[in-house]
Amino acid sequence: MDISIYFEPLNLEELADNEQSASSRLHSTTRIFSESNGFPDLEGVQLAIIGVNEDRAALENKGCAHGSSVVRKHFYTLYSHWNNVEIADLGNIISGHSIDDTYFAIKDVVAYLLENNIIPLIIGGSQDLTYANYLAYEDIGRVINIAAVDPIFDLGHDEHELNSRSYLSRIILHQPNFLFNFTNIGYQTYLVNPDAVNLMKNLYFDTNRLGNVKANLQEAEPMVRNADILSIDVSAIKHADSPGTAYTFPNGFNGEELCQICRYAGMSDKLTSIGFYEYNPAFDEKDQTANLLAQMMWYFIDGFANRQDDRPELNKENYIRFIVKSEDLNEDLVFLKSKKTDRWWLEVSVNNETNTKYRRHQFVPCSYPDYQAAMKHEIPDRWWKVQQKLM
Question: Helix crossing, 99-115 with 129-139: angle to 10°?
Fold first, then answer.
């Protein structure tokens, strides 16, 4: 399959000046699609940057289609500190005649990259592009988890309308359904309808209020580690740190916290795609948000460079097994602690019929506090929710 037909090349002169051409800058270490260089050879590539200049389904944030070039300008000034990471920039996906054509192109490209063990970094565009990213996993037949850093749930009001504020409803209702779990990281309660909160609970999805996540940012690590897709809405970052979107709010994550979450995502051996959405240069002050997004991408790559092939479903011998007796359950709680990274998982038992389909999801990322709670006879919420879905 030739995915180059979906892309338009980048102008190298717009990405870097002479000073930025130092051999250790990302501009020099990345295989970039340009008129002079041609489409990059993907042999050995591990990460692929994709720009999507699409905002036809953006609500009140028209102009976010023009953000990828600004983000790249700052990204390519940063220094590479990794000898073990091969990155390609595939350019920008050519906008289709209709928005569905653009979705189709994203789906095809992402599916191809996933099948070749290449992780796409998508620079949007509006957050409805997460739906197109999700469709790629349907193409390869993989049941997945999605995590979104977002101040709201993006459920919308009309189940038939797909836009940046309703993409999650479209994913939930899509048939056949390949979504196992959805995790929201950092919703702001006063922006969310109480009915939406109840719906998320009834679906056994994970919702995490902004204050709770900020109070203990380390707990965001297992949230991200459980995801195959991470979708980031820049409106989740407070206006003082990120003014570059129409949806800015006075409260939210700060820049350092989002960089840490991106590093967690990069370190996760399960996560296979990430998207940065809703950046609109028309609202950006001195390219502050573009600079931050470039650094968030850098931290994701830094996390990726430090992956440890840490997946208990592949080799249980690399894990210490802790069995906690439970007075309230008919079975014991089984915790696994990695000998490589000291990270924790909960093992949820499944029957033989569902074992093949959901094997990737029976090992639930958790934290040491979850183990401590279990020792006090408190059943972790993470275990309950996965158990309900596997019943």
Answer: 50
